[in-house]
Amino acid sequence: MSSTPHDPRAGFREPGPPLSRRRFLERGARLALGAAALGLPGAGCSSPTTPQPAVNGRGEGRLQSRPPATPPREVLAPGQHPVDFDAERRGLLHVPPGHRPDAPAPLIVSFHGAGGSAQGWMSGWPARADAVGALFLVPEARSVTWDAIRGGFGPDVAFIDAALAWAFARCAVDPARIVAHGFSDGGTYALSLGLANGDLFRRVVAHSPGFIVNAPPHGKPPVLITHGTLDAVLPIDQTSRRLVPYLRDRGYTVDFREFGGGHEVLPSLATAGLAWATTA
């Protein structure tokens, strides 16, 4: 399972001053950790843009929505439902069979890769979400990729917050099993937003992430990272193999699963990832 078109941004660096544009081009990669992400022109990669307005005035990517203390009396019927209160881009929510107000379910918030869409990324996931009885929410980025990948946390965080509030009002959600999940740029975003909101997201699943966007951490959610050893888009040596020790050094529990493949999500790891994420 993969998201197309793939995002060719790659890389990781230890905290410190951003690398120069010349060194970016020499390496043919995008390297960032502990600093705001920078855009790098190239095939399939858009040029840098002005950072978006910061959430809470500080660019911390904080989400305010939380499940209510009392679940709604009525919940959405099983199947897919549009999250379409934004005229530009929308999202989709998949509700598993048998969802009831008296049985709060896990909620997986899943982020597509660069150039992706809610409809495209939703394909293939509902059956896996149904197998673990999870709600599966797929928001869409306001632009070609997520705000903090090319600038600062901003309009995407605002939409995700609104989408969460919308879902919480219509579904019974288990607050102990809310998960940030994504692939490629979406994996980077799940990891970054998940660590910034570890008091909301109790687990984080990042398939083939590139880096971590700098933001104050909240909580210490366990993290699952998967990455192909043959990934030519986000090479594993420059990304996950450096991200994992970085996170472990900071006290995070990380389950790291390498596989012999490219820039993709193996079906077996897609299934295992959701099972891991929704374990109470």
User: Which percent bin holds the helix content?
Assistant: 10-25%
Work out the radius of gyration.
17 Å
Low-confidence stretches: 2-58
Spatial order of the strands in the main sheet?
Answer: 1-2-4-3-5-6-7-8
Characterize the overall form: globular
End-to-end separation: 26 Å
Question: What is the element string, with H for helices and E for strands?
Answer: HEEEHHEHHEHEEHEH
Count of individual beta strands: 8
Largest sheet: 8 strands, mixed
How confident overall, as mean pLDDT?
A: 82
What's the oligomerization state? single chain
The helix tally amounts to 8
The SS-based structural class is: alpha/beta
Report the β-strand fraction as a percent range.
15-25%
Describe the structure.
- The chain has eight helices and eight strands; from the N terminus they run H-E-E-E-H-H-E-H-H-E-H-E-E-H-E-H.
- By secondary structure, it is an alpha/beta fold.
- Helix 6 (185-196) links the parallel strand 5 and strand 6.
- The protein has an eight-stranded mixed sheet, sandwiched between helices.
Features:
8 strands; alpha/beta; 280 residues; eight-stranded mixed sheet; disordered N terminus
Element layout with pairings:
Elements lengths: L20 H7 L51 E5 L7 E5 L9 E7 L6 H5 L3 H6 L3 E5 L7 H4 L4 H14 L4 E11 L1 H12 L6 E5 L15 E6 L11 H10 L4 E6 L7 H11 L3
Quick structural summary:
With 280 residues, this protein is an alpha/beta fold. The chain has helices at 21-27, 118-122, 126-131, 147-150, 155-168, 185-196, 240-249, 267-277, and strands at residues 79-83, 91-95, 105-111, 135-139, 173-183, 203-207, 223-228, 254-259. It is globular.
